[in-house]
């Protein structure tokens, strides 16, 4: 026994070893302390740079511009040019069935042909696509040449007098379609405004359970500047101090069952508002924003996927994939 005790490390060694363990643990906990060592060890310096790079990708260089990041705080990807490999994604989605819904009611029928022609050129090229066109002028629709594997459906809808009712009714119609017809025909639905043209690749990288786009006019703004519905009496109400991003009603999508839930919630909200004699500030868009605050999108599209060449901050937009067609609001809505 005595002999063994003689071979044990001395108390000084034990204390020294424990102190070393403490220092290592401390450094792991507080990674910023790596700065202290980075110049001493080139390997550590590399690790530090990598860590800083990850932080930049995750949180952005400037927290105010969080829309420029590639991940949301709830870890949904934000799709910017260069963040995906389309070859890999195309292979994953080779059997996926995709719907694209669009409304061309009253004078908006004039935007339909350029919209569809541009979709044939850039939207989900090589994939199985069904266009769901809703219009009050089925007989006036000029059909473009549609590629193999793609189909065009025309559906008759009533023309509401007020443009606000036209845009809001989309929620009601799409609720019914996403419940009954679409589950048999498609896996994902993408919903778009018609006064737009596809101008560059828009492919399966945009597919996800629940997908929304960053509004091109607000992607650099703080939530306090968003035009959310702020009146508590509306079902679209979002209190001050809340909100992640501002999402437009002009381009969003998701799996059919998720999109059904979104449309149903917005339709119910609109009906509730109607009973309370109130209309949300930006109609269905306000209700969509409310829904997406409490049901976070699983994927977000950068404003590359909804851009207007009249807007500032174009330097951030390397690919202008889906572009607004300029129109005279007064003329076209009457
Ligand atoms: C405005 C708002 C937008 C949103 C939207 C209502 C601006 C800059 N943006 O967008 O944030 O609130 O209104 O959704 O003002 N449509 C018809 N026939 C009509 C009216 C509308 O088919 O008579 C359809 C059509 O598909 C159109 C979509 O509804 O693209 C949206 O209407 P809009 O184009 O008048 O809305 P927009 O782009 O001015």
Question: Explain this structure to me?
Answer:
There is one protein chain. This protein is α/β, with parallel strands linked by helices and 334 residues long. The chain folds into two domains: 2-63, no CATH class; 86-333, Spore Coat Polysaccharide Biosynthesis Protein SpsA, Chain A (Alpha-Beta Complex). The chain has eleven helices and ten strands. The protein has helices at 2-7, 11-29, 34-38, 42-59, 86-92, 112-122, 163-179, 182-185, 256-275, 283-294, 329-333; strands at residues 78-79, 97-103, 128-135, 150-156, 188-192, 196-198, 210-213, 251-255, 299-301, 322-324. The chain is globular. The N and C termini lie far apart (102 Å). 34% of the residues are buried. The site of uridine-diphosphate-N-acetylgalactosamine (UD2) has 20 residues, from α7, α10 and α11.
| Percent range of helical residues | 25-40%
Our count of domains comes out at 2
Return the average pLDDT rounded to an integer: 89
Strand content: 5-15%
CATH architecture tag of the largest domain: Alpha-Beta Complex
Q: What is the β-strand count? A: 10
């Amino acid at each position: 026994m005595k002999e063994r005790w003689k071979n044990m490390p001395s108390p000084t060694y034990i204390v020294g070893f424990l102190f070393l363990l403490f220092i290592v643990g401390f450094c792991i906990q507080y990674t910023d302390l790596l700065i202290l060592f980075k110049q001493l060890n080139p390997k550590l310096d590399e690790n530090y740079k990598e860590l800083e790079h990850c932080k930049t990708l995750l949180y952005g260089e400037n927290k105010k511009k969080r829309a420029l990041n590639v991940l949301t705080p709830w870890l949904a990807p934000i799709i910017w040019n260069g963040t995906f490999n389309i070859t890999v994604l195309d292979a994953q989605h080779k059997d996926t069935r995709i719907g694209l819904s669009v409304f061309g009611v009253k004078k908006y029928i004039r935007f339909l042909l350029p919209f569809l022609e541009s979709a044939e050129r850039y939207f989900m090229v090589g994939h199985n696509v069904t266009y769901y066109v809703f219009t009050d002028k089925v007989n006036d629709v000029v059909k473009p040449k549609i590629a193999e594997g793609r189909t065009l459906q025309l559906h008759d809808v009533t023309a509401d007098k007020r443009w606000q009712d036209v845009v809001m009714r989309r929620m009601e119609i799409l609720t019914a379609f996403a419940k009954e017809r679409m589950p048999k025909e498609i896996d994902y639905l993408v919903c778009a405004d018609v006064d737009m043209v596809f101008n560059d690749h828009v492919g399966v990288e945009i597919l996800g359970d629940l997908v929304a786009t960053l509004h091109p006019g607000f992607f650099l703004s703080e939530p306090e500047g968003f035009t959310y519905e702020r009146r508590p009496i509306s079902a679209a109400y979002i209190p001050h101090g809340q909100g992640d991003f501002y999402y437009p009603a002009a381009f969003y999508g998701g799996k059919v069952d998720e999109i059904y839930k979104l449309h149903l919630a917005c339709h119910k909200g609109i009906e509730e508002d109607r009973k309370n004699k109130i209309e949300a500030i930006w109609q269905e868009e306000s209700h969509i924003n409310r829904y997406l605050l409490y049901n976070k999108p699983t994927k977000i599209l950068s404003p590359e996927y909804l851009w207007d060449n009249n807007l500032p901050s174009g330097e951030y937009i390397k690919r202008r994939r889906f572009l607004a067609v300029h129109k005279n609001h007064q003329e076209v809505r009457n």
